[in-house]
Write a structure and sequence with these properties.
alpha/beta; 4-stranded antiparallel sheet; globular; 8 helices; Rossmann fold; 2 domains; 40% helix
Length: 229
């Protein structure tokens, strides 16, 4: 049984989330702030975290940043609809996705299911034959390790999956919608900016000069590609 951690100080929202997730067969653990969430993660195997932003003691941004020092557990930010900047900030701090309040139960469970599927696949024993390499950029699909000129690069689960998809198709250009559908396994939503934010974070980690990228190129008006070196 997969285990979901809900981190939110709004009890009605937590209770509602718990009902939906338990109906889907998930085990649910709860925390009221980021500090409690970190303690729970240390003591339990967690497969996905639903993280509110505004909380006492330690907010969701600080908690996500701290989590990323040790874990690649999927983190879905819970954000109010008007807080677009918070959504983007959450992704910049290492979150994998976000969902708005009030949430649609079907969208919530679909996003949780998608993140867990991707996380479990990345951690499974499934073997793929070769490394993906272009120039000094290397992605090892067995160890899930990414290196640039021999130095390891730490990616979130979602960042890794996006990079893996693009490196499996070196030289091909994909729109943000195509990348989203390939990685999330669901149709993109109107105005979806998740892919763009993740691409920027990947560039910051794999490029010497993110403003003049060597590997992860934009083809203006079309999309993104990994350049063959």
């Amino acid at each position: 049984m997969y285990r979901i951690l809900i981190c939110d100080d709004d009890k009605p929202i937590v209770d509602s989330l718990e009902i939906y997730l338990k109906l889907e067969g998930y085990e649910v653990l709860k925390a009221q702030n980021g500090k409690e969430a970190l303690q729970i993660v240390e003591q339990n195997e967690i497969h996905c975290i639903l993280m509110d932003i505004m909380m006492p003691v330690m907010d969701g941004m600080a908690a996500t940043l701290k989590l990323r020092e040790k874990y690649n557990i999927p983190v879905i930010i819970l954000s109010a609809k008007s807080e677009d900047t918070d959504k983007i900030s959450g992704l910049n701090f290492g979150a994998d996705d976000y969902i708005t309040k009030p949430f649609n139960p079907l969208e919530l469970t679909a996003r949780v299911r998608s993140q867990i599927r991707r996380y479990v696949t990345l951690g499974s024993l499934e073997k793929k034959d070769s490394r993906l390499v272009t120039g000094g950029l290397s992605l090892d699909r067995e160890t899930k390790q990414v290196t640039v000129d021999g130095d390891e690069v730490r990616l979130t689960a979602t960042e890794y999956k996006i990079l893996e998809f693009l490196m499996e198709n070196i030289g091909r250009v994909f729109s943000t919608d195509q990348i989203y559908e390939a990685v999330w396994n669901e149709p993109t939503l109107p105005g979806e900016k998740t892919v763009t934010v993740h691409i920027r974070k990947i560039r910051e980690k794999i490029e010497i000069d993110p403003k003049n990228p060597k590997y992860l190129k934009v083809v203006w008006g079309i999309g993104y590609k990994i350049e063959k070196q």
